[in-house]
Amino acid sequence: MTSPTDDRSPKLPRGWLRAAVVSTIAFAFVGAAAGFIAFLSQLRGAEIVPDRKADGIVVLTGGSSRVSDAMELLAAGYGRRLLISGVHPTSTASDISRTLPENQSFMTCCVDLDRTALSTRGNAAEARRWAQARRFKSLIVVTSNYHMPRALVEFSHAMPETILIPFAVVGDKWREEPWWASASTLRLLLSEYVKYIAAELRVRLEDFGIDLSPEVSEQPPGMQPKRPATAQAN
């Protein structure tokens, strides 16, 4: 009979669990840092004029000079129509045109407003409906440079057969100082990186038929959250 003290089962070395935890955290940190560097490599430091025209132009609200840059592209003939996605429900075309006096004529002939989108995913869904209704096969996507990677993930997933041409808007603050010299810019980039990873993960899961978070604009009206008075789409 085996005595209680006669336990010859192998024992793990002391500190094994701690070493495993530390190694896991280290690998996770290195992976996150490498991913962040890869994310930064996608960001353009200067605005580059598209090398081709498209059927339409879509601008995502939420950042300075996005709409004005999109209007300039429209005026230059880079697209036949412009969709401003994520406009607050109380805003009107006249409100927007007052901020863009040099392009007021285009507001009445060639600009459509989307007041439904509450997120980048919603922007992509509304842009898809807008493009399909007009049989557009190519779109210039206008948004801030730090937001462009996530926007392209959402737009590519929503309309895989549409040609997407990015136009990344570079803000004045980005031009004036490097991102690592500004705490607020660094926080913005880290936040956007996390959202980008989340979008990539959600899109990959959806490819396998797993939808963990249905788009708000596709939910029943009673289930949709109300947009706060100061909310923006991105």
TrEMBL record:
Specify the DUF218 domain's residue ranges.
55-194
Region of interest (Disordered), residue spans? 214-234
Q: Does the keyword Transcription regulation apply?
A: no
One annotated Gene Ontology cellular component of this protein? plasma membrane
Which keywords accompany this UniProt record?
Membrane, Transmembrane, Transmembrane helix
GO BP annotations, alphabetical order:
Gram-negative-bacterium-type cell wall biogenesis; peptidoglycan metabolic process
What InterPro entries does its record include?
Answer: Cell_Envelope_Assoc, DUF218
The record's annotation in Pfam families points to: DUF218
Give TM regions.
Answer: 20-43
The name this protein carries in UniProt is YdcF family protein
Organism, by scientific name, is: Bradyrhizobium niftali
